[in-house]
Amino acid sequence: MSEIEDLLDKVFGKAKKIGDRVAVFAQKxxxxxxxxxxxxxxxxxxxxxxxxxxxxxxxxxxxxxSISFKGLERLDEVLKRIEKALELTPPKPYSAPLxxxxxxxxxxxxxxxxxxxxxxxxxxxxxxxxxxxxxSEGVKKVAGAIYTNAYWIGLKTTSGFEMxxxxxxxxxxxxxxxxxxxxxxxxxxxxxxxxxxxxxxxETAAYYANLSRNPKTLGAGEYTALFTPDAVASISNxxxxxxxxxAVIAGYSSFAQKLGQKIAxxxxxxxxxxxxxxxxxxxxFDMEGVPTRENxxxxxxxxxxxxxxxxxxxxxxxxxxxxxxxxxxxxxxLVIEPGDMKFEEMISEISEGLIIGNVTYIRFQDYVKGDFSxxxxxxxxxxxxxxxxxxxxxxxxxxxxxxxxxxxxxxxKERRQIYHWWLxxxxxxxxTYILVEKARFTEAL
Length: 445
What we know:
This protein is of the alpha+beta class.
């Protein structure tokens, strides 16, 4: 019996004594990190984490809790408290059983890269490769990190589902500097170390830093803007979040009551697909034991589906999509279909506008309407007649998500899988360049 199976059996056996419906999700993660700044390696470390999440339902009352590996010795005490809490909890006005196990589950090849648990010095070599490639392009300083993760997960439910799965992933994140406002950024994510190209990531970060030299102010207004894959990934995280059935029900989705409607550029296609080749999150079952699958969210600019667990599917009279989350169904891995435009073609389309290297600290002033703003950085560049001219300072992206999606005029051929800490929903994205007409910018205070 594996370590994860042992954890599942130990917790499940006790939890099912107090609940009619029980699900236990256990995870072991081995992580490594090499962090660097000012052109030097700062830290290299490894750590092991365990997490156990438990769903207990009785008489249509629900409690969800997490317990640490060390806290298992207090499991009986915790369960007694949960049992008392269930007595005091009011019943829900709705209910749905945990799904029965499916007849089959997807098989994803090469989900576990053994090299990720191999020689840790290899990560230092990747970090140095990124530093050296950026410095060779003339930037003054380079910072960033490479992370790797190996996961062993398992789920057991009272509906008869019991399965384990293991996979790996990794990402490299690099920023290049000339000065505080003369920066560039690039990143890449994969399930395997062999797909991480430190030279290209370092060169791309340096490219945007070099274009950002001697930044000037530019007035607020509407500009044609070319958003890089990193910037698009940040915005797309909220496309994924708003496709969640929970967000729709809870009243903070711009996509509510828009199923079947054209809400975006007609050539835009976005899906959630943990099963595609090199998915950063190659999971095969969700937290309710439902098989994962590709779910097309936008196609031809039309909103095709919301993402569901058992509860949101029931409340919205829809099919379970394999995206549980016991509370919040969420995308596993967003995939933007490539367009037909090269990077140089997209820049040539800009008579006067901007390149946006990254969008961070995205905040919505109105989730339902879609009004949001975000800090633009790491390559904000003024473009005139298809030619990058100089860096820009003092602007903030202040737009509407639906408007932004509808004003897309071009999608790039080149794609890169993105995952880094600026993605506020934590959703990896196979991303590309997107050209947007009349993107709105205000002056940053």
